[in-house]
Specification:
The protein has five helices and ten strands, in the order H-E-E-H-E-E-E-H-E-H-E-H-E-E-E. The protein is of the alpha+beta class and about 170 residues long.
Length: about 170
């Protein structure tokens, strides 16, 4: 998000509110939006202030507790080791509140990192839902000419992982 109020301003009409946010070192602001009723049943989870992530514990109407996070992990190809450590920390932090968790956001990952991150975080929701090739790339600078220097590539930076016995894709 470009600002702390951006997500709530854009999605408030659909019933979403911010459950918390944090600044990033390399790009904008991270926000965790929840439906208002879920946000009322949430409690923030404390994370390392150097991690561009926000998380909360939610008690669902059926009394199931889940941990949810929104993250913007380290950028660039050379950030793979840092992203791996960030994912380990996220999982450990969320697991202190619940074994059932949803971790999502801009993970800046390359396909070569899939197995290592899945071993830490659990099920890749996009893969579990059927891996539709048309929806694979969340960054496509071949179609969206973002880079003026002509450097074009495709990647699935945005991810959603689920773990625990009560979460199913």
């Amino acid at each position: 998000s470009p600002s702390p109020s951006f997500g709530t301003t854009i999605f408030e009409e659909q019933g979403y509110v911010s459950a918390g946010g944090t600044t990033l070192s390399h790009c904008g602001y991270v926000d965790l939006l929840l439906k208002k009723k879920l946000a009322e049943q949430s409690k923030p989870i404390s994370l390392d202030e150097n991690l561009a992530s926000v998380a909360c514990r939610i008690v669902l109407p059926n009394k199931t507790t889940i941990s949810v996070s929104s993250s913007h992990l380290a950028p660039f190809k050379h950030g793979a080791g840092t992203r791996l450590r960030q994912c380990q920390f996220l999982k450990e932090s969320l697991r202190q509140e619940s074994d059932d968790m949803i971790l999502l956001g801009d993970y800046n990952m390359r396909q070569s990192e899939d197995t290592a991150i899945e071993n830490i975080l659990g099920i890749d929701a996009w893969k579990a839902a059927g891996s539709n090739y048309r929806s694979k790339f969340t960054w496509d600078s071949i179609v969206n000419e973002y880079h003026e220097d002509g450097f074009s590539f495709r990647a699935r930076f945005d991810r959603c992982y689920v773990g625990g016995g009560n979460i199913h894709v």
